[in-house]
Design goal:
The strands form six sheets. The protein has a four-stranded mixed beta sheet with strand order 21-22-1-23. Helix 6 packs parallel to helix 7, helix 8 packs parallel to helix 10 and helix 10 runs parallel beside helix 12. By secondary structure, the chain is of the alpha+beta class. The chain has 14 helices and 23 strands. Helices cover 31% and strands 24% of the residues. The protein binds uridine-diphosphate-N-acetylglucosamine. The site of uridine-diphosphate-N-acetylglucosamine has 21 residues, from helix 1, helix 5 and helix 6.
């Protein structure tokens, strides 16, 4: 993407359906047999297409019409996830719980590491074992099976992992009896999954204290649910507006989902108003105040907004710090931002960001999805031309980002390689 920066963004942008909510709720289809799951507000993204391809490989019939996707599930499913798809997207591991619960077996190549740090699935496997699965890992492939049904029981997650919570909730849906999982992730995407499980007939109760209670059922029925708005995409456009000193209304979002981000923006002196399902950002004559940020599981500051926040704070007046407590090594974007004139040093899990007055356009590389987003918003604010390479990462999570930015007045262009 070629960006000629320095233009304050202006106008209205609508939030897409959430990638991280759509992926697990699509996997709910694997709990069905001879039934249909209909999902609305599904974004058009590379990762969503990878999940569709994976579900098709497993035997599900998928029909997409604009943002509605219908999953028509046959009486029997295949249980082997192909390595080529699992390697493309770590969230492929979300098929583990539902397939095992529905078909009694599953094989899944281990997803391996990625550029934001090591991402094991030990918590997913531990929970499934506790529910009665036998698990064997051979030549990098997880083979799991269960004699009869998985058994509902009380589980405790050592860390509130989003993926492990989702996999175990889906596994518990067809288990014998009741499952209670403690210390679960409480991201809004978990509520969306709970609603989708309920719509296919599974009694799910989320408890305020970080637990969930699920009554296993014999057979899931057809259902329809809507994917929630993408809070990370919404925050990216909010920060793009702040960074370019623009006047932008970001619509179709749930403001309470982005409270942590809005609290930091308020602290930094950014000017904005919050409405029922929109946030409006206003230009300001003053540079941002520096702030201290620490990423944490929801409702803490989201790790997925960390790189974009770092880009924004690189223009603050003074020294900000961002501590990353969810993933290690999620700072690869810092050296790219520094090529644009930012002053960021990394000390273990902390990024120390010394605010500079201006960024300059440069050739940079998107090392992962959110790093790519950070570089794009930095490019929008920088003087001169920025070229972001490896846009493939960005298409995993941002629908039509070039068109949305152009509609806000940005000068961006896609270059075919
Ligand atoms: C999901 C999101 C991702 C987001 C992350 C944290 C999707 C598709 N992806 O990823 O965008 O950045 O939540 O909000 O929803 N861990 C273990 N063992 C496990 C599982 C996780 O040690 O079995 C560790 C991970 O290495 C990581 C931390 O727990 O350090 C958080 O991971 P997790 O919450 O599981 O993230 P994902 O579900 O992979």
């Amino acid at each position: 993407m070629k960006i000629t920066g320095g233009i304050p963004l202006k106008g209205t942008v609508k939030t897409q359906g959430a990638k991280n909510a759509a992926l697990p709720v699509m996997a709910v289809a694997l709990l069905l047999r001879g039934q249909k799951l209909t999902l609305d507000n599904v974004p058009d993204l590379y990762d969503i297409n990878t999940m569709i391809e994976l579900l098709e490989t497993l035997g599900v019939n998928v029909k997409r019409e604009n943002s509605q996707v219908v999953f028509d599930v046959p009486g029997e499913l295949r249980w082997e996830a192909p390595e080529s798809l699992v390697r493309k997207m770590r969230a492929s591991s979300l098929v583990l719980g539902p397939l095992l619960a529905n078909m009694g077996k599953v094989s899944l190549p281990l997803p391996g590491g990625c550029s934001i740090g090591s991402r094991p699935i030990d918590l997913h496997l531990k929970g499934l074992k506790q529910m009665g699965a036998e698990i064997d890992i051979q030549n990098g492939v997880v083979h799991a099976h269960v004699n009869g049904k998985l058994r509902g029981r009380r589980l405790y997650l050592d860390f509130p992992s989003v993926g492990a919570t989702e996999n175990l909730m889906m596994a518990a849906s067809l288990a014998e009896g009741e499952t209670i999982i403690e210390n679960i992730a409480r991201e809004p995407e978990i509520d969306n999954l709970a609603a989708t499980l309920r719509c296919v007939g599974v009694p799910v109760e989320l408890e305020g204290t970080g637990g969930v209670r699920i009554q296993g059922i014999d057979r899931a029925k057809s259902g329809r649910e809507r994917v929630i708005p993408d809070r990370i995409e919404a925050c990216t456009y909010i920060l793009a507006a702040v960074m370019t000193n623009g006047h932008v209304r970001v619509e179709d979002l749930v403001p309470t989902h982005i409270d942590a981000m809005l609290a930091k923006l308020e602290e930094s002196g950014a000017k904005f108003t919050v409405r029922k399902s929109a946030v409006e950002i206003f230009p300001s004559k003053r540079r941002l105040h520096p702030v201290t940020v620490k990423t944490m599981p929801y409702p803490g500051f989201p790790t997925d907004s960390q790189p974009q926040m770092a880009a924004t704070l690189s223009l603050a007046r003074g020294v900000s710090t961002i501590e990353e407590s969810v993933f290690q090594a999620r700072f690869l974007y810092a050296q790219e931002l520094n090529r644009m004139g930012a002053d960021i040093t990394i000390s273990r899990d902390v990024a120390i960001i010394r605010g500079v007055e201006k960024l300059q356009g440069a050739g940079v590389r998107a090392t992962d999805l959110r790093a790519g987003a950070a570089l794009i918003i930095a490019g929008l604010a920088a003087e001169g031309e920025t070229r972001v390479d490896d846009m493939i990462h960005v298409w995993r999570g941002y629908e039509a980002i070039d068109q949305k930015l152009r509609a806000l007045g940005a000068n961006v262009e896609l270059i075919k390689q």
